[in-house]
């Protein structure tokens, strides 16, 4: 049993806390948000991650705003968020604030704690920004404390599953002893471990997410061409997927990628590349294709109804099924554009309506049946239950390939 502290009680921090707790470690979670702390202490997870509530209820996890509780930890994982700024670069305010606190603990504390960055930070950040703050305590990495970067690869809604069965654990190490310490902590998860340096580990995270984003934009572009040629892009993707150099996953053409990670990471690496004088053309195209894809759904809609004065139904608001998260969700852009162009909207989502309502108080959140009674319907998320609705007689623009929607009177797939 090790004493482990997790800084940041967001999705990543709580999943990491829960999984290390499940492995028998003593966990302290620190966050500055008192409301969130109260929520977790009543054993309700503030994020919708299957399995999380259960582990929180069964485990001895202390959640607090008191950084003093980190004092005797053998390992500290920094998991605070690094939100996007307006120019696409990431805001390091939270991680700097957390690091300053950990630096104070280093100053007065003893032992040889291992500090690991799990937050997603652009390559170079740990060495150039985080480490100097920690070392301003007077203590040295590799002499007084360990220092690693170990990015997370947790899909929203599958966090616990992904952490417990990781495809790989990436350990970016400041020095061999630091890497050995993290290996020792992580080997219980039985995943392949790759050891490398700090900035390479940071880049592996970005390159992985951006590769997935590129795969989606690639198949969407092929899909757009296929639609014009009368070819089914899903058949094309199936044919491509047999080649294991390509792989069958992440080739579902449609509205594009959203969520709290892929768009943000793509924009952040674009900003970082430009900062160091490189023009990342492919990455910029991946992003602009994705933005164009969302607007394409509206072009298709306009072929069937005039937008101004119509009532448009929006099925699916979350950025993907299985989550209530609407960050960078396609439905948000669609709703904003429809509103701007003078349409009324009725929307439905099994989990995300409360979040959507905060952003669009004027949008009527309703039942699927009510949404289907609109002049036309756009499907923006492929929730399974949408494949059981009655689309007969309706006009449907499908952004996510819901098979049953094909029974509509007018059916238009975004790129099929
Ligand atoms: C993503 C990565 O998949 C995780 O590995 C990573 O750890 C995580 O970001 C993170 O950085 O924390 P997530 O944002 O939960 O996970 O979502 P994905 O499952 O990757 O889906 C992203 C978007 O791509 C969704 O809007 C989805 O609808 C879209 N998508 C996905 C497609 O349009 N087509 C596909 O074939 C696959």
How would you describe this protein?
This protein has about 425 residues and is an alpha/beta fold. Helix content is about 40%, strand content about 15%. The protein is built from 14 helices and 14 strands. The chain has an 8-stranded mixed beta sheet with strand order 3-2-1-4-5-6-7-8, sandwiched between helices. α10 (about 260-275) crosses α11 (about 280-300). The longest helix is centred in the middle third of the chain and has 32 residues, at about 200-230. The N and C termini lie far apart (about 55 Å). Bound molecules: uridine-5'-diphosphate-glucuronic acid. Uridine-5'-diphosphate-glucuronic acid binds near residues 155, 251, 256, 262 and 319. The site of uridine-5'-diphosphate-glucuronic acid (UGA) has 20 residues, from α8.
Task: List the SSEs and their pairings.
Elements: E1 3-7, H1 11-22, E2 26-30, H2 34-41, H3 52-58, E3 61-64, E4 75-78, H4 93-108, E5 114-117, H5 125-135, E6 146-149, H6 159-164, E7 169-173, H7 176-186, E8 193-196, H8 198-229, H9 233-241, H10 262-275, H11 281-302, E9 311-315, H12 330-340, E10 344-348, H13 353-359, E11 364-365, H14 368-372, E12 376-379, E13 395-398, E14 410-413
Parallel strand pairs: 1-2, 1-4, 2-3, 4-5, 5-6, 7-8, 9-10, 9-12, 10-11, 12-13, 13-14
Antiparallel strand pairs: 6-7
The structure holds uridine-5'-diphosphate-glucuronic acid (UGA).
This entry's quaternary arrangement is: single chain
> What is the terminal-to-terminal distance?
54 Å
Query: What is the number of strand segments?
Result: 14
Structural class: alpha/beta
- Numbering strands along the chain, what is their spatial order in the largest sheet? 3-2-1-4-5-6-7-8
Mean pLDDT: 96
Number of helices: 14
Give, in order, the helices and strands. Answer: EHEHHEEHEHEHEHEHHHHEHEHEHEEE
Rounded Rg = 23 Å
User: Poorly predicted ranges (pLDDT <50, ≥5 residues)?
Assistant: none
DSSP strand content: 5-15%
